[in-house]
Design brief:
mainly alpha; globular
Length: 144
Amino acid sequence: LHVVLLDKLIKTDMFCQNDHAVKSTFQFIIFHFKSLEDGNCYEILGWLYSLLNALVRRSADMQNIRNYLYLEREKILDAMAATMRLKSFNFNHMSFIKSITCDLLSIEGCVSESYSAILKQILDNFEGLGGINETVEICYVVTE
């Protein structure tokens, strides 16, 4: 039930206007990545995707959120890398990670040039021959 409620809450306009709610939800999602198991990885990726998607839609001034995501970017990469190392990682997870990467790149001022280059490399690996293993490696090196 809390999964459905969180997803619905994230998609409301009022939620997007509340910086504290966004930051708290992000911390909640990242906390769940720390106890990641094969069974719950898809729904946690879904939360992260919904949160970033809501922020991309947001019309209010986003400077606080940009700054926050900029500070937390390693945690996002770490979460994506952890997901990709799971045995159950599959195409559905991959499309979420691709969408999360695109969302991060589309929030102007959210990521530095070097981080942006890493995210673009992740997207290139999905499109080209680099494959999943190389993408996991990129995420892992960045978060060490």
